[in-house]
Amino acid sequence: MVRVRLVFTFFALTALVAAADKKSPQGQVEDDAVTITATLLNAEQLRQTVGTDFGNNYTVLDVHITPKGGMPYNVALDDFILRSESSGEHSEPFLSAGQIAGAGALEVERSYGNRANPDSPRPLEGTKLEMKTDAKGDPALDALKKKMLASKTVTEPVSGWLFFPLSPKEKAKNLILSCKTPHSKLRLAFR
User: Fold this and answer.
1) How far apart (Å, rounded) are the C-alpha atoms in residues 131 and 118?
2) CA-to-CA distance for 175 and 63, rounded, in angstroms?
3) Which residues on adjacent β-strands are paired with residue 64?
4) Structure confidence by residue, pLDDT tens digits, 29-85
5) 3-state DSSP helix/strand/coil % of the chain, to nearest 5
6) Is the pTM of this model over 0.85?
7) Is 49 helix (H, G, I), strand (E, B) or coil?
8) Contact partners, residue 176, CB within 8 Å, separation at least 6
9) Residues facing residue 132 across a β-bridge
C-alpha cells in the first residue's frame, strides 16, 4: 500500500512539474522597422499578476516591441488586430485600462450565423453592446494601467499587455495577430 502511494505521489508530482514547465503560446515577426514578439497569457497568469482574470472574458497578449536601426517607432494600438481563423472573429485591442477594469465596462456580445462551407468564416449576424457601471470600480485598475501597452513613439524596446474582446477559449493555433508597420503588414502566428 505504501509503495502504491509513493508511485502515485511520484506521478502526481511529475505531472505538476510538467504543467509548470509548459510554455505559453508565443510568436514573433519582424520587418525592417521593428521586431514584435507576443505571448498568449492564460487566466492563472492574469490572476497572479493583477489579482483577477477579469471574468475570463478577454484574450490577453504580452507584447514586446523592439525598434530597429535606432529609428523612432510609433506604437499605435489601433495598428493591431487579433483574428480567429476558426470563427472569423476579429478585434482591435482595448485602448485603456478603464475599458477593462474601470467603474464602467463595455460588454460586447456577438452572434454568428452558419458557415457556407467548412473553409469559410462564420458570418457576423449582430453585435450587442452594453455599458455596465460599478460605482466602486475594480481594484485591479491601477495594476492594469502599469501593465498595458501604451500608444507612443519609442526608440528603445517596450512591452505591455493588449486586451482583445475575443473568447480566451480560442485555440492558440487559430489566432493571428496582425500589425501595420511603416514598411509592411505583419502576421504573427502562435506556437
Assistant:
1) 35
2) 15
3) 37, 159
4) 999 999 999 999 999 999 998 888 888 889 999 999 999 988 999 999 999 999 999
5) 25, 40, 35
6) no
7) helix
8) 82, 83, 85, 187, 188, 189
9) 105
